[in-house]
């Protein structure tokens, strides 16, 4: 009789250990899925921030390029105006 109880206790202990391992594996799987979802959401959030930063950078670059182009155009116009003026003065002085 004692051996029967020992066998039953041993079988019950084994069964509980197997159930414990199964539950542990299931919890691990659930936890991993939650971690994966959080990582995916954070990655998407970071990608959106990165895309926004890139858009802002490109817009700023475009604005600065426009300012530089306008400044360069004014400088070129000034140089051309001075060249025309000095050419006119030189031509006038030659006639005198």
Commentary on this structure:
Helices cover 98% and strands 0% of the residues. The chain is built from one helix and no strands.
Please trace the helix and strand order, writing H or E for each element: H
Counting DSSP E segments of at least 2 residues, the number of strands comes to 0
Dominant shape: rod-shaped
Number of helices: 1
Share of helix among residues? over 70%
Our estimate of the beta-strand percent is under 5%
The average pLDDT value, as a whole number, equals 94
Q: What is the radius of gyration computed over CA atoms, rounded to a whole number of angstroms?
A: 41 Å
Largest sheet: none
Low-confidence stretches: none
Short characterization:
With 96 residues, the protein is an all-alpha fold. It has one helix spanning 2-95.
List the topology elements.
Elements: H1 2-95
Descriptors:
mainly alpha, 96 residues, 1 helix
């Amino acid at each position: 009789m004692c051996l029967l109880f020992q066998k039953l206790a041993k079988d019950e202990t084994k069964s509980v250990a197997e159930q414990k391992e199964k539950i542990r594996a299931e919890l691990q799987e659930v936890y991993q899925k939650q971690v994966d979802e959080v990582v995916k959401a954070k990655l998407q959030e970071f990608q959106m921030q990165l895309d926004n930063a890139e858009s802002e950078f490109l817009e700023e670059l475009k604005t600065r390029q426009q300012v530089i182009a306008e400044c360069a155009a004014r400088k070129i116009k000034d140089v051309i105006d001075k060249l025309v003026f000095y050419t006119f003065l030189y031509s006038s002085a030659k006639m005198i």
